[in-house]
Amino acid sequence: MLSRPPKNDPLSHNPTTQHSMMRFHGFHWMVSGALLFSLTLCLLPSCPLFAQEEEPPPTDWSFESEVGASIFFGASDQTTVATQVGVDRKSARFELESDLSYLYGEANDGEGNTFVNKRSWAAASNLDYRGFSRVNPYMFGGALSSLEKAIDVRYKWGAGAKLTALDSEASKLDFAVAFLGERTEERSLTNGDAETLARWSGEFNLRQRFSEGRTVFEAKANYSPVFDQSDNYTVTAESSIAFKLSEVISLKLSVVDNYDSRAEDRGARDNNDGRVLFSVLSSF
Predict the structure, then answer these.
(1) Which pLDDT tens digit goes with each residue over 179-209?
(2) Contacts of 272 (CB under 8 A, 6+ apart)
(3) Is 278:71 a contact under the CB 8 Å cutoff?
C-alpha cells in the first residue's frame, strides 16, 4: 500500500510550494487549451461549414485615413484629437489588415489648470488565411501605449479561428475565438513592473450598409480574460456610423469604450475609459 504523507507535512503548508502548484495547474490548462485549439484547426477542413467557401477574390489594396476630434464643455472642459491610418491587402489566400492610431486629449479642472488626460498610440496587424471562407484561421499581433491606462507599452500576439455568419454587399457578421500572449510594462511613474500573461479572447464584428451603401453602421466588441484569473480581463467596444459625402470622403461618428480591470492597480484614474469622436474619413 502507498503511504500517505502525515497531516503535519511542512510542504503542505509551504507558501512557495503552494504557489508552484498553482503555476503548474495554470500551465497545465494553457497546454491543454493549446492542444485543443490545434486539434480544432486540424478538424476544420472536414467541417461542413468550412467546405462552403466562395471563389477567391482578386488581389486588391485599400487605404483609409481618419482625423477626428471631440470637445466637451461644462464643469470641466475636455478636448480630444485622434488620427488613424489603415492599409488592407486582399489576395487569393491571405488578407492582411494593418492599423496605426494616435490619441491626445487635454482637460480643464475648472480652476484654469489644464492637464493631459489622454495620450495613447496603437499599432496592430491581422492576417487571415483564406478569409473569404466560412471558417478560417488567423494570426494577429500588436503593441500599444496608454497614459490613461498607466501602460508604458503592451505587446500582444496570438492566433485563432473566425466564423463568418453573414457576408454580402449589404451585411457582414463574424465571430472569432483566439488564444494570445500578452506582456505589459507599467508606466515608470508607478513601480515600472512588467507582467506576462496568457489570455483567450472572444469577439464579434458587424457591418451594415444602408441607402445603397451611402450609410455604413459598424459595431465590434472584444472580451479578453486571463486563463486562470477570471477577474483579470479587458473589454473593448466600439460603434460607429459613417455618411458618404463622395466616393472618397465620409463623415463619421464613433463611440469607443475600453475597460481594463487592472488599470487602477497600475495607478490609472479609472478602469474604464470612453470617448465620442466626430471625424472625417477618407478611403480609396
Answers:
(1) 999 999 988 654 568 899 999 999 999 999 9
(2) 257, 258, 259
(3) no
Residue with cell 484654469: 112
Distance CA 184, CA 37 (A): 25
pTM of the model: 0.76
Domains of the chain (ranges, CATH numbers): 47-283 (2.40.160.40)
Q: Which three cell numbers stand for residue 138?
A: 488567423
Contact 224, 200 (CB under 8 A): yes
Of 131, 101, 205, 197, which Cα lies nearest the Cα of 158?
Answer: 197
- Cα angle 101, 144, 235; round to 5: 95
